[in-house]
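To whoever is covering the structure queue this week,

Two jobs came back overnight. Logging them here so there's a record in the thread.

Job A:
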Amino acid sequence: MPITLEELLEAGAHFGHQKYRWNPKMKIFIFEERNGVHIINLAKTMQQLRNAKKVIEEIISKKKPILFVGTKKQAKSILKECAEQCEEFYVSERWLGGTLTNLSTIRKSIKTLDRIEKKISTGSEGLTKKEKVKLIKEQEHLEKNLSGIRNMRKSPSLMIVVDPEEESIAIAEARKLEIPIIALVDTDCDPDPIDYVVACNDDSLKCIKLILEFFKNTIIEGKKKIAILKTKEEEKE
């Protein structure tokens, strides 16, 4: 189901930042200034959501992977939940430099995590209590940062970002590899590096949840269509 204007209003998607914090490049997405706060033009946001939906549908139809990125407090929990539900990759904790541009190094860290988990599962034989505690802490640290990209063996074909100002390193890496970016962009952000801007309040939990769930449902529906087509083809054989 598409997001309605009423849902966006209820989620506070139209509230931008105070005027003094704005990025002038966001002017085309601003409807007006009200009491010193910029109000986002939700008619444009609605069209941007439709465009983003088409992009996501195309990526899913080609069975290509998507990476969700959002490490700010308001985004991390719902982003992780949505990505897991639609079975796509995600980074909801600290972005590790080189996650995209130096994936081989990230894969080495994942192999380290695999080794640690194997050692712990076998009872950590031969280790002192202090060494076991250290090993468990290392496991928790690696798991926290790598769980969402643990099975990502190649670069994603699309990146969905909450707040590009917060995720500037991730944006730069995606740009370098020419990975298209859909982003929730507030009035204090630079929209230039973003391929598909969704102008909205990226500080509102309700707004983030509404839009990420819309993207999640688009992905799930796309995968269902692929599964149905596959079943029909198998029945013909």
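Job B:
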Amino acid sequence: MAKRKIVHIDENKCNGCGLCVPNCHEGAIKVIDGKARLVSDVYCDGLGACLGHCPQDAITLEEREAAPFELPTPAEQISELRQWPIQLHLVPPQAPYFQGKDLLLSADCVAYALGDFHSSYLRGKNLVIACPKLDAGQEIYRQKLVELIDESKINTLTVMIMEVPCCGGLLQLARQALAQAKRKVPVKLIVVGRQGNINKDEWL
């Protein structure tokens, strides 16, 4: 491998805000376990478009041995996941990467029904997932959603559910959280059919 310029992220400085992620158009940076990480040398072009968007100055360019830069081909599906964890039981509602962001609350099954889930629905949003039928302790879900609305001041909430009856519980949880929260946020409902069709896509 030849030496070339490539992004270096100082994990001690990084606060996990995620501002660098949408500014890395090649998809080389993701927030994992609360820290921005370079997940692919191949997709880092070394131009440093992400540098000026880091409020902690945690991103620099270094010269080291790395695989040659390659643009993703159209056939490749680039993940739009911006943080980890994503399961609603596990997410810390006041994490920096939720602050002022658009939130996608999705039923577990949705991503399996939609081939373009990442590119068409997850892009530009932070994600939490839940199953309203099988998950226990759903009172915790409601409280976490309230905290995301009031404490993290999410910008919008999109609820994605399947057309099956059990998924309606997720919309009900969201409505309960909105009723309890002090802030009001715009809410969109997207209902997905079992064949991957969109049955409903509307602001509530």
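Note for Job B: The chain has a mean pLDDT of 88.

Please reply-all if you pick these up so we don't duplicate work.
Q.
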